[in-house]
UniProtKB/TrEMBL annotation:
<dbReference type="InterPro" id="IPR048859">
    <property type="entry name" value="BTBD16_C"/>
</dbReference>
<feature type="domain" description="BTBDG BTB/POZ">
    <location>
        <begin position="153"/>
        <end position="280"/>
    </location>
</feature>
<protein>
    <recommendedName>
        <fullName>BTB/POZ domain-containing protein 16</fullName>
    </recommendedName>
</protein>
<dbReference type="Pfam" id="PF21059">
    <property type="entry name" value="BTBD16_C"/>
</dbReference>
<dbReference type="InterPro" id="IPR011333">
    <property type="entry name" value="SKP1/BTB/POZ_sf"/>
</dbReference>
<dbReference type="Pfam" id="PF23998">
    <property type="entry name" value="BTB_BTBDG"/>
</dbReference>
<dbReference type="InterPro" id="IPR042833">
    <property type="entry name" value="BTBD16"/>
</dbReference>
<dbReference type="InterPro" id="IPR056426">
    <property type="entry name" value="BTB_BTBDG"/>
</dbReference>
<feature type="domain" description="BTB/POZ">
    <location>
        <begin position="475"/>
        <end position="580"/>
    </location>
</feature>
């Protein structure tokens, strides 16, 4: 055995027997050999990617070059899976996650496709990368897994991405099937023309053989399908999801909405279109109603359009007016909703608040949060000119004309109307004069001649109104019943007359009763502060025209029940103070009840 001595050891160590020296030397050699093997295994590198580069086999967080090579190799495999990697192995290499090859290493291993007999999947999830899969990668992973890496029959070029498709799924899309048929027909015609040209031309044998090889390659290669997209709402995420449903109908998108519906319509996928419409109909809310209505009008989906408009009739005032999505409500749709006789609101003032909030958001499009009502009042109060009389506000006149401002009777609400510089002076004078006459003994005909009032109540005349259209001029009051409520009441005051609106469930059944009862101004149900601050009429009889509308959700849609316009004399005695109960069976919560009242001559 050959032993090497350093100068330090030979100088400081005494002479030892040969056997002793041999044991120590053997022990030192074993340690040196172990360290050498460990260092060699640590520095050992494996091939990574298609660039003939190398990386460490162990998991090193500082190996940034190796990490970059892994990502590049994955992207390369997704973009061109059928191309061969220029490496020592001439066959195509794919990334797979092999848990048995190197359990300590989180880095993916390069495995030959022919040796990967067990089920594997394309590896994208590495420990140091939290980057989610792109839409193209999600589609490639799913399609290759379900087709077992079969060669594509067609390549769809859309949105700057090449989507590899197979004939077995093209039949689920009318547009893709049509594109494939047309492309195949054109290629067959071109090959026939090329074959006829080669047959009649004088070429040598080598050129003929090259032509046959070229023809065989074209027949076996995938067809190129080009689909232009002009709709800005269609993106790669929606297109990737739509194409994935061709392979797996159970796929679900991150969000059912305009992008998915537009993509389904573009590809002619009727099953996906119906499924998307069903999901959208079941998910109409304050967050989605505006976008759903816009895409329904664009694609002429009348069922979805009517459902959105029906939702707005019920929840424009009670829900959408408290969300920032109110700014996305278009002018025409808002006007149509305000003019609808089925619009639900607790009172007329709440409708005015919703319109003022919508107008504020239209004038401040950069605002990202819903403003407080005090902010809106301050914004419109600081203006010196009347908004609706300015060129900018002329187009909003129809919106305020659709409001029933004559139904706003609370003093603080009337004071608010005076403070904001929105309504013209003539409108304000007309409204205030009507309320002034409710507490006057006589009527100033000269002053009132300045206006053309739609409604003119008067305490001297018992609060009579000039009605031309009951459905547009009646004053509305609403209440909502949920599952836990058995009875709901509301006390209202109109031109000195007090009424109790009632909605009650009858026993354990699903039958509800709705009625109106006139109250004396000293009745305990009337708040004493209201009696002090509001006028009251001592007239014994009052002719009232009322209409009760009940709307509830049943069998997957909103159903409407109406009592129709009913005229009745309400007296102060108990026998004549209450209306005939309006009873409805089979109602389920939530229940929206609207009482519309007017005082005819």
């Amino acid at each position: 055995m050959h032993n090497q001595w350093s100068h330090l050891s030979s100088r400081n160590m005494p002479f030892r027997p040969h056997t002793r020296l041999t044991l120590i030397t053997s022990h030192n050699s074993h340690q040196i050999s172990t360290r050498s093997v460990w260092a060699h295994s640590l520095c050992q590198r494996t091939q990574a990617g298609h660039t003939n580069r190398w990386q460490l086999a162990g998991a090193l967080g500082s190996d940034l070059l190796g990490q970059a090579q892994v990502r590049r190799a994955e992207e390369f495999g997704d973009k061109s899976a059928n191309r061969k990697i220029k490496s020592a192995d001439p066959m195509t290499l794919h990334w797979h996650e092999d848990a048995t090859s190197c359990p300590q290493s989180p880095l993916p291993q390069l495995i030959h496709p022919l040796s990967a007999g067990r089920r594997t999947r394309l590896c994208k999830d590495v420990t140091w990368s939290s980057k989610p899969d792109t839409p193209e990668e999600q589609f490639n992973i799913l399609s290759r897994r379900l087709t077992q890496n079969a060669k594509p029959d067609a390549v769809l070029e859309c949105l700057g991405v090449r989507w590899e498709l197979h004939c077995s799924v093209l039949s689920y899309s009318d547009i893709l099937s049509k594109l494939y048929t047309n492309s195949k027909r054109q290629r067959d015609v071109q090959l026939q023309e090329r074959a006829a040209t080669s047959k009649h031309s004088k070429v040598n044998r080598t050129q003929c053989e090259r032509g046959l090889v070229s023809r065989k390659w074209h027949l076996s290669g995938p067809l190129i399908l080009r689909l232009p997209v002009k709709d800005a709402s269609i993106n790669k995420e929606a297109l990737s999801f739509a194409l994935r449903t061709l392979y797996d109908p159970e796929e679900r998108p991150s969000e059912w909405g305009e992008a998915v519906l537009s993509t389904a319509a573009l590809l002619g996928m009727s099953n996906l279109l119906e499924k998307c419409l069903k999901e959208m109909l079941a998910n109409i809310s304050s967050l989605t109603v505006c976008s759903f209505h816009r895409v329904s009008c664009k694609l002429k989906e009348t069922v979805l359009q009517r459902a959105c408009e029906r939702w707005l009739e019920l929840f424009l005032v009670t829900e959408l007016s408290f969300h920032i999505q109110l700014r996305d409500l278009p002018f025409d749709l808002l006007l149509k909703t305000l003019l609808s006789p089925r619009l639900f609101t607790s009172n007329e003032y709440e409708v005015l608040r919703a319109v003022l909030c919508w107008l504020y958001l239209q004038l401040n499009p950069l605002r990202q949060t819903l403003p407080a009502h005090s902010t809106i009042i301050t914004f419109f109060s600081k203006e010196t000119a009347v908004f609706l009389e300015q060129p900018q506000g002329q187009k909003y006149v129809a919106i305020f004309q659709a409001l029933r401002i004559h139904g706003i009777t609370e003093w603080q609400h009337l004071q608010e109307l005076q403070n904001i510089r929105v309504l013209p002076e003539s409108w304000l004078l007309h409204i205030l004069s009507n309320h002034y006459h409710t507490v006057s003994v006589c009527r100033d005909h000269k002053h009132n001649a300045l206006f053309n009032p739609p409604v003119t109540p008067d305490l001297y005349r018992g609060g009579d109104m000039v009605l031309t259209d009951f459905s547009k001029q009646a004053i509305r009051f609403g209440m909502m019943l949920d599952r836990e409520q058995v009875c709901c009441t509301q006390t209202i005051s109109i031109h000195g007359f007090y009424f109790l609106l009632q909605a009650a469930k009858m026993g354990e059944s699903d039958t509800y009763s709705f009625s109106i009862e006139r109250l004396k101004h000293w009745d305990p149900a009337v708040c004493q502060s209201s009696v002090v601050s509001r006028p009251y009429s001592v007239r014994s009889d009052r002719s009232v025209c009322y209409h009760i509308t009940v709307q509830s959700f049943a069998s997957g849609e909103w159903q409407e029940h109406s009592s129709g316009a009913v005229s009745q004399e309400f007296g102060l005695c108990k026998r004549r103070s209450r209306s005939t109960p309006f009873q409805i069976e089979g109602l389920s919560s939530p229940i929206l009840v609207t009482f519309a009242l007017a005082f005819p001559f």
